[in-house]
Amino acid sequence: MSSPIKTKPKSSMKIENAPTPHNTPASVLNSYLKNGNPVSKDKMPSTINEEDISKVLSSNQPLLLQSIQDKLGDLVGQDSGYLSNLPVEVKEKIFSLKHLQSELFKIEKEFQIEMFELENKYLNLYKPLFERRSGIVSGNVEPTEEEISKGREIDGEEEQEEGVREDSEEKIRGIPSFWLTALENVPIVNETITDRDAEVLDHLLDIKLEYLTEGKPGFKLTFIFDKENNGFFTNETLTKTYYYQSELGYSGDFIYDHAEGEEIDWKSNGSNVTVEVEMRKQRNKTTKQVRTIEKLTPIASFFNFFDPPKPNNEEEERDEDEEEEFDEDEEDLEARLALDYSLGEQIKDKLVPRAVDWFTGTALEFEYLNEEDEYDDDDDDDEDEDEYGDEAEDEDEQDDFAGRTEQAPECKQQ
């Protein structure tokens, strides 16, 4: 549906990974460069000699190498000269195709907007079922016999469940740790959950999804907590809102613009799972009195999700050292933005609609099946390599026995 912003500063371009300029034909077998182009070869733009580049790379000439890198960086996105040398009749046809493409983009935008509205329409149809699910999970309502019976049929279970039924007077309320377990089973999300986070998420009662239909398109996730038993913060709900850009991306999808979180009102520094508290003693130089202060150090936590990174839109002049440091910071920021966006999409598209499957782990089976399908060909290649590797090892063993020599074993092929 959408994809995160990806930006690459020119200074990050290196000679070894400089891309081929746009509009360069993959083959000249039927192109105007070989047949029918009235422009002579001496008018064609010159190219960089690969042998010269190899000599520069092998020599110790950093200034010359940097100069070539800068020139290649400036070439990225530039016209290769191929289009400018086409006949006028062909250029006019290309212009007409560009017009058709722009008309296609208009229709594609309407398609995406209608898809967004359709998703919102069906989300409203899902809401009664989500509310029913929330009630059962929290323990505010009990499932009906019909719901239990039909659920058994779907799961293929026998009428009598093998699980242990509690006979004590205290009845189990809802499904304990439902959302914590579901979150921990989502591959990308579970990497952000620490042991301390799990203690807080154990009080999570529900996650609600809402699409933004006014202003900028986007969606909002609302995390609802058990306020009475939550000893970590006072918020009953925590929200995270994702906004898309008004214009679609080149691929026709919505482009991630930014996200807004909500400040968490932690009951104390000790209950704040996003920081590490270190107690330090300070002595006053004049009075010699000693006082104890708390030093707070930010640490990794799932709850940083509600304090999303902010895209850097500032542009200012920098020297080379500052530019290099800025580029590293930009790469780190871009990675954090991509992770933040991915977390939101995973929760929206996978967790909320199929929470029970993530709780039971059923959804993981389908995740692994999809991964196996993606890497199926690679696995076959690995098997072939293993077969050849085994044969080679057998031959080596025979040679060793034949020569009756003792040698250190070689590393086996992975």
Summarize the structure.
This is Nucleosome assembly protein. The chain is an alpha+beta fold. It contains eleven helices and seven strands.
Structural class: alpha+beta
The low-pLDDT segments are: 4-46, 397-414
- What is the percent of helical residues? 40-55%
The CATH architecture of the domain at 174-311 and 325-371 is: 2-Layer Sandwich
Largest sheet: 5 strands, mixed
At the fold tier of CATH, the topology name of the domain at 174-311 and 325-371 is Arylsulfatase, C-terminal domain
How would you explain this protein's 3D organization?
The structure is a single chain. This protein has 414 residues and is α+β, with helices and mostly antiparallel strands. The chain has a domain at 174-311 and 325-371: Arylsulfatase, C-terminal domain (2-Layer Sandwich), CATH 3.30.1120. It has 11 helices and 7 strands. It has helices at residues 50-58, 62-75, 88-138, 145-155, 178-185, 187-190, 195-201, 320-351, 355-360, 362-374, 376-403; strands at 2-3, 204-212, 218-225, 237-248, 254-260, 275-283, 290-298. Strands 1-5-4-3-2 form a 5-stranded mixed sheet. A two-stranded antiparallel ribbon has the order 6-7. The longest helix has 51 residues, at 88-138. It is flat. The two termini are 38 Å apart. 12% of the residues are buried. Mean pLDDT is 77; it is low at 4-46 and 397-414. GO terms for molecular function: cyclin binding; enzyme activator activity; H2A-H2B histone complex chaperone activity; histone binding; identical protein binding; unfolded protein binding. This is Nucleosome assembly protein.
